[in-house]
Prior knowledge:
Blueprint: H1 2-16, E1 96-101, E2 107-108, E3 111-119, E4 125-131, E5 137-144, E6 146-150, E7 153-161, E8 169-178, E9 187-195, E10 206-209, E11 224-226
Parallel strand pairs: 2-9
Antiparallel strand pairs: 1-3, 3-7, 4-5, 4-8, 6-7, 8-9, 10-11
Amino acid sequence: MRRFCCWALLLIGLSACQIQPPVETIPTPTATVAPTATSAAQVRIPYVLGPQATPTGTAEPTLTPTSTPTITATPQPTLTPQPTITPTIDPSNAPVVLIARPLANEFVTAEITVAGKVANVRDGVVQLRGRTPDGQPVGPDPVLAATRLVTDGLGFDGVLRLDLPPTPRQMAVVALWTQNADAAPVAEASQLVSILGRYGRVDRIIVETPRPFERGIANRLAVRGVAPGPPAKMLARLLDNNDQ
């Protein structure tokens, strides 16, 4: 116990008296600036720029952007078709076809006598043909009319033969003038006429029965007769002496 206490005291004493190692002090160098001898007046030397050196190299060219030209499409001219030059005929000297026979709206038979003239011409061919009122050809092929020189043109006449229709009907007689038989018609004229037809017109009625002053039976009279003409209905009436 006593030994333990001694050791404890020894440790306490060593702790209180720790030995510090000596610190080496490094002297700091001190720079001493010697005074510069100057004159009483300070001399200021101005700073003058010397001549600048001129570069001897060739300057690079400056590239200036050039705007690209706008390409404008030039419209192509439109070719206008040239008009066809047709030789004109003086109206005062133009050929004119005139039909003298048949007359307008005349009742004619199947053989139609056609006559007339073509004014302002001295030669040529005249064709005769038939047409319906709406312009459709009717009858046989065109017939060449005989021509002759007259005072103011070319006279013509001919016969146009047609097939009789069942009943009277209207048609047009046409006369065409051409330079020759194969050329196109230059002038024409038409005349409306009425064809009698196979039955002709009703111009009379023949009563066969009853006979004059004949008496009927049972207050009836049988009437029979003939009426040349197209098929039609006949109306029989009984009249007194005063046609009433």
